[in-house]
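User: Can you help me understand a structure? I only have the sequence.
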Amino acid sequence: MVLNRRWLALSAAAVMVCSAALLAQKKDDKKQSDAQRKETLEIVKLTDAASAGQPLTNDFGLAWAHEDFLKATGNKEYVPFTLTFDQAKMPANVALYWRVVAKDAGTSATLTLPAKKDDKDKKPAVSKYAYEDINFIAASGGRLSRAFTAGAGTYDVYVVMKEPTSTQKNAPPPKVSVIKQTVTVPDYWSADLTTSSVIVAAKIEPLNAPLSPNEQAERPYALGAMEIVPALDTRFTTKSELSIFMLIYNPKTDAMNKPDVTVEYNFYAKPAGAPEKFFNKTSPQDLNAKTLPAAFDMSLGHQLQTGQAVPLASFPAGDYRLEIKVTDKLATKTVTRDVNFTVTAG
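Assistant: Let's start by predicting it. Here is the structure, written out as tokens:
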């Protein structure tokens, strides 16, 4: 049976994921206040202690919810990630710091800080970590997303959320959360057919205008002309839909620099205690010279995207596996990706 489906509301043009501003480790162009510099130094010490194995504190219920992987430039990958926290425990403002450390890296490094007015002749210290950044924000909504870039490999990501240290006498210690997450970044820089991670979306919205560098840093799932709000889990009701998006990397191209790729979406039911069974599928999606925009040219960096938004009304409650099969007809190569999800009664 072929499911009813609609195309995701995405630009027909290529999605350019990583701008030059996004690829750099973002540092504010305005000088930090003395208070912010002190907070930064305190947070760096907290992170150093955590990396040395000291117990972690989590006053805000901070948790790593999810990460995704996309191809960047310069042999690096782009890793947007989402954090959750207990909004009821949040102060008005916090500092948010994240440090990405390669598993085989040393422990000595210093966050790059803007120089003070009287330090004109001093160069800022340069981080030896794979990535680090700090924001001073008003966290709301119980979730937020940030990103980093790194080469393929396994990393420990330390995230610190800290309220400002009070200047009042005998004030209680500031609340702080420190978490650690190990992330393995794939390599998208070989010549082999591959894909980004499959992003499961809570919603996908068009962008009316490009984001500023600061906006992009705070909204790392804004990709080209659209913005994805990633789903925090893969449990859905029959009244919702399964929306997914991914990019296809390294397909072979023809003389016009266009690929010839077919994407198939097959759904399998996974009954408890029994082998999975084919359930249904959507019509194959062809991405080639006939279906892509005339201006599409992979030699110009245009990116090949695919996505589905499948209503779940016809899915009985239960567990499922979506198999996404990507076939490069020119190279006669195939890769598959899986999404496991659960449907509950609406």
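Now, to help you interpret it: The longest strand covers residues 333-344. The chain has two domains: 20-185, 194-344. Let me know which part you'd like to focus on.
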